[in-house]
Structures are given as structure tokens and as C-alpha cells.
Amino acid sequence: MTQYNVFFVGLDDFNLATLKNLPQAADCTFHAALHIDEMRGVGDLDIPALVETAAARMAAVPGGAHAVTSFFDFPGTLIAAMLAERFGLPGPGLEAVLKCENKYWSRLEQQKVVPDNIPAFAAFDPHDDSAYERIGLIPPFWIKPIKSFRSYLAFKIGDPRQFDDAVAICRDKGAQLADPFRTIMEQADIAPEIAGMAESFIAESSIGGAQCTLEGYAHDGRIVGYGVVDSIREADSSSFARYEYPSMLPLEVQHRMIDVARSVMTQIGYENGTFNIEFFYDQTNDQVWLLEINPRASQSHADLFEKVHGVSHLSVMVDLALGRKPKPFQRTGQFNVAAHFFVRAFEPGIVTRVPTADALKRLHHRQPSTRLKLAVERGTDLASLENQDSYSYELAEIYIGGRDRAEVLDRYDEAMTALQFEIERETLTQVT
């Protein structure tokens, strides 16, 4: 049997465990082109150096590299596209990935084919003192970097004062991703009016409704959607409380989303790769809104597919990276419903208590299928955490399956009884 070397840009232990459960693990060896800690939490990103490090690892493996991909956002997907082009491996192509990753360029492409499914938008420079007037959108509207992830530096704007306060933060922190992203844009062979833009942020009119994510792929000229995951927000907050699968949206609405995805991804020229597209469905106006495109399978959803289908959707990513047509999913999983919960704090502070080893063992005994990923440890300063959304701090992630949503929520309540965190603030100590 031929053994294939499959490389991942941004491999971590949690997702490696998921990969090893795939049927493809029988004929694939999974390697780290880059480890996650080589591209996250490292300060200034030297993209060319990371590309060369990854390329050297791929070239050195006995038997050669057969595939390269990434389930992590910037810079993972872009580095994977550059490596695929360098080694002549299957992949969507750097320009197509950039058209997804650059939120402004992506909107320009979307506007050509689905103008009725996108909000009004405008690019702006946060260092421009007249930016608010130049944007010309009526509040409320959102601002976010042209390149960001996980809602980093995304702010809802209700008036000029809120805009000024948000832009002050954007000026201070925006260059963290904007500068290395601009470097890639300038080095790529794309239109100079896009590559050389001074504007690094985008403003968009407010859209809303039930939020979800369509997981799909492009292969052999076909755009396929294979699952919709609901995104449930915290009460009175823009932060996500959990992801649920399968979606509760009507199938007719899901099919409309697939139609929008098919038009947009064809326009972009996306091929031989996975993607996920975030949508809103406004039930009041029966309107489907496209929020943003991510040129990758969401690793946050991998365990959900495994619990429901018996195999993670990372299997789709591996097949496409090898140039294979993915197999359809079957409902052969252990559970009917699965959810990915986020445990959050909504104010900064110092973590003084995390779940003990004994507590984790007790939880595993009660819920052996539940998976947990801690994001903090004792002594963590929440304000120092990187890549958080603008309104909260992640403490942990919990993956739970059940017969139905009621059982999933009951198991979550049981898990939270065991998972105690304490956050010390200047004037009080709060147990989350």
C-alpha cells in the first residue's frame, strides 16, 4: 500500500488526534509543515521565513510530500497555498485564497454575482481622521480589519464617538495582521490597486438573523455544500456561546445558501479545496446574507461531524489535498446532535483557578465522549490572550454529543459543574 505524506500548516495535538481517527490514516502519515506555536503567539510574523521552514520540512521527508493544507486561518491557509504552488500539489491557488481572505476584495467579487445577498460596504484607513465621513454608512454598522479572524478587532459602531474609540484600538493593534498580510498581497501577482491599498479596514452595514456556517468544497469544477452548522451567540453579546450541528434552519434556506456559495466560489475561481462560508438568515424578511468566506474547513466543527457522521470533515480536506474526490457523509455517528461550547469571561483579570486533574477525570468518567480544550492556566492574564474577539476571553472549549439538543445542554450543565474557573479582578473574585 502506498503511504502518503500529508502536511498541515499549523498542526496541533488536539487536531492531530482527530486526524488519526480518519479512515485516511491507514494510508497517510500526517506531518507538521509548521506547528501551531510557530505561527501563533510569536509577535511579528515573518511569512517568507515560515514558508522556507515549511518547504524545507516537506522536501526532507522520505518519499516526498504528497499534499499540503491547513485548517487554520491566517497565515495558515495562505502559506499552504504558496507551498502547494511551489511543490506542484493540488490546491485552490494563492489568488483564489487571497480573494477569500481579503474581506474587501472578496466583497468586490461577491458584488458581481450576488449583490442582493451582501451588505453595503466601504474600505477605510483607520489613520484617516476623516474616515467616518468617507465611509458614508448610516449607523449601526460594523468595522473590522480587511484581514482578521475570530472577530478580532471587530466592533459594532452606533455613533461617531464609538467609532473614534474603536479606531483608537485599531490603530494600536491593527498592524499585527495587516502588515504581514499586505506583504503577501504585494508579493503576489495580483492587481496593484488591490495589493497596494492603504485602506486596511472595512466597514459594513449591519445585517442579522440566525447565524450559521456552510461547510463545502470545490472539486473538478463542482461546488458542493455538505453541512450547515448553527452559530449560537451569548445573550446580549456578540460572542459565540456554541456551535450546533446539524442546523435547525429549513432545508430550503440551506439550499439557497448553497446556491449563493456556488455562484461566489465559481466567480472567485476556487478549486480543489475546502471552504466555509458564514451566513445570516433574516427570517422576518426571508433574506439570506453572506457574512464572510474562509478558504478552509473549520477545525472548530471537526468533532461535530465526527460525533454525528462517524468521521470528521477533515477527511474532506485530506482527500482534496491529495487530489481525490471526497466521499459523501453517512449518518453513522454515535449521536444525533453535537455542539461545541465556549466557556468565556467577559471582563479582564488573572486566572487563579482552573479545573483540577481529578475534576477532569470525573467528567471523563461521566461523559467519555466529551472533549475538552483548556485555553488558560493558573496565572494567565486574560488581557494578554491573543486573537480574542472584542468583547470576551475564551477560557475553554467543550465538545459534547447527545440524542437531541436537550440532552446536549444537560451534559453541558453537568460539565460546567465540574469545570470551575476563578478570575481575580481588582475589586472582586468571580467564579465563571
Most strands sheet:
8 strands, antiparallel
Number of strands: 18
Radius of gyration: 21 Å
**CA-based shape:** globular
Strands side by side in the biggest sheet: 12-11-8-9-10-13-16-15
Structural class from helices and strands? Answer: alpha+beta
Low-confidence stretches: 428-432
CA-CA gap between termini? 51 Å
Percent range of helical residues:
25-40%
Fold and architecture overview:
It is a single chain. Helix content is 34%, strand content 27%. The protein has helices at 13-19, 47-60, 76-87, 94-101, 103-113, 131-135, 160-173, 175-187, 192-195, 251-268, 302-309, 314-321, 357-366, 405-418; strands at 4-11, 28-35, 67-69, 121-124, 141-145, 155-157, 201-205, 210-219, 222-233, 240-245, 273-282, 287-294, 337-345, 350-353, 371-374, 393-402, 422-424, 429-431. An eight-stranded antiparallel beta sheet has the order 12-11-8-9-10-13-16-15. Strands 4-7-5-6 form a four-stranded antiparallel beta sheet, with helices on both faces. It has a three-stranded parallel beta sheet with strand order 2-1-3, with helices on both faces. Helix 4 (94-101) crosses helix 5. The radius of gyration is 21 Å and the shape is globular. It starts with a strand and ends with a strand.
